[in-house]
Design a protein that fits this description.
By secondary structure, the protein is of the alpha+beta class. Helix content is 40%, strand content 15%. The longest helix is centred in the C-terminal third of the chain and has 31 residues.
């Protein structure tokens, strides 16, 4: 039964980031998903490390299953699949997992499709009935469910307050900080290419008020570009004649503070992907105690919620073959959370008013059977 009636019809997938009008019209931030991935994940070390840190943590989290004693369902959820899905959720906000059946119509393999190639096909009421997968000019249609009500594709998505069918990734929120960080890197590289100091100006003062001709200006510009620009010519002496003198230019301390600018942008990137900046090597209170707390916060606030979202979606799909299946992360085996578990055991063990059975139940163990 469709409890909430009609859903909005799927619209064209919105731009991941719309920019801020014409304020930065000289070099707008990329708007397409592919361009943002190139600028953020492929070209920015902070964004790439943040995504990898979360995705790899999700991939290697210990997974167990209930109501599936032979472990078939768990064997389908490989670390490589979890890492790919987590990366897609962080970047795109959507992940589409294809279920491939064997000769006995049972799940044999799960693999993730490229999310930018998949679109939702809805019925007249706006409910998804199929997914269109497009590669170049080739298209394939994957029904949401087969004739027996079993899913052919699992759509995992992050929450999006303005879209019924697609999730919201982190690239849009990180685009501004990534653009600033990349531009600061290019600026610093240009400074290093010019002996780590800004350019200067050639001042012509002939004394008689005469001006340089166009031909002289062209020759002068060509000589400067060929003989005195770039890292290979850094520190080379400059021979001037004809009333020319070199006037060095300097930058203000605020203009030279690109280290602080990059650090602030890097923190915003880490914030967008849910990673404590300390874990990315950014400046801060880098003590061992703070690092442990940052690592614990990463697991509690980012990794475990994402892993739960992914495993819950896969469990709901695979429950068509294994009724009652529930995939989850075994938090007791995560070393970053060992201190929490130790404290819980110590507190419950000291509770004399609890029976052994009650203590076992509070710690997640089944009660011992009597008799």
């Amino acid at each position: 039964m469709k409890w909430f009636g009609r859903k909005a019809a799927p619209r064209a997938r919105p731009l991941l980031f719309a920019g801020f009008g014409n304020i930065f019209a000289a070099e707008p931030w990329p708007r397409s998903y592919e361009a943002q991935v190139r600028d953020s994940y492929l070209a920015n070390p902070v964004a790439q490390r943040a995504v990898r840190l979360v995705a790899e943590s999700v991939a290697w989290a210990p997974v167990y299953a209930s109501a599936n004693s032979d472990g078939e369902a768990v064997s389908l959820v490989a670390p490589a699949l979890l890492e790919t899905v987590a990366t897609q959720l962080l970047l795109h906000g959507n992940a589409f997992v294809r279920l491939i059946e064997d000769g006995e119509a049972r799940p044999a393999e799960l693999f993730a499709l490229r999310p930018e190639r998949v679109s939702v096909e809805a019925d007249a009421a706006g409910w998804p009935v199929a997914y269109l997968y497009k590669v170049g000019e080739a298209r394939s249609r994957i029904p949401a469910k087969d004739g027996l009500g079993r899913p052919g594709l699992v759509h995992l998505k992050a929450a999006h307050p303005l879209d019924d069918h697609y999730g919201l990734g982190c690239l849009g929120a990180a685009a501004a900080a990534v653009a600033v960080h990349n531009q600061a890197t290019r600026w610093n590289k240009a400074l290093l290419d010019n002996a780590a100091r800004p350019s200067g100006a050639l001042v012509h003062d002939a004394g008689d008020g005469s001006l340089l001709t166009g031909e002289q200006l062209d020759r002068l510009n060509q000589d400067m570009a060929e003989q005195f620009s770039g890292a290979g010519n850094a520190g080379r002496p400059l021979l001037l004649d004809g009333g020319l003198k070199w006037q060095a230019l300097s930058l203000t301390p605020a203009e030279m503070d690109f280290a602080g600018l990059k650090a602030a942008a890097a923190r915003e990137i880490a914030l967008a992907f849910g990673v404590p900046p300390m874990l990315l090597g950014l400046p801060g209170d880098n003590t061992y105690a703070n690092y442990k707390e940052a690592n614990r916060a990463l697991w509690r606030l980012t990794v475990l919620p994402m892993a739960a979202r992914i495993l819950r979606g896969l469990s709901d799909a695979l429950a068509a073959w294994w009724p009652g299946l529930a995939l989850a992360v075994d938090a007791d085996q995560i070393s970053a959370l060992a201190a929490e578990r130790e404290r819980l055991w110590r507190q419950i063990g000291a509770a004399d008013f609890l029976s052994d059975g009650e203590k076992r139940e509070m710690l997640g163990f089944a009660r011992e059977r009597s008799g």
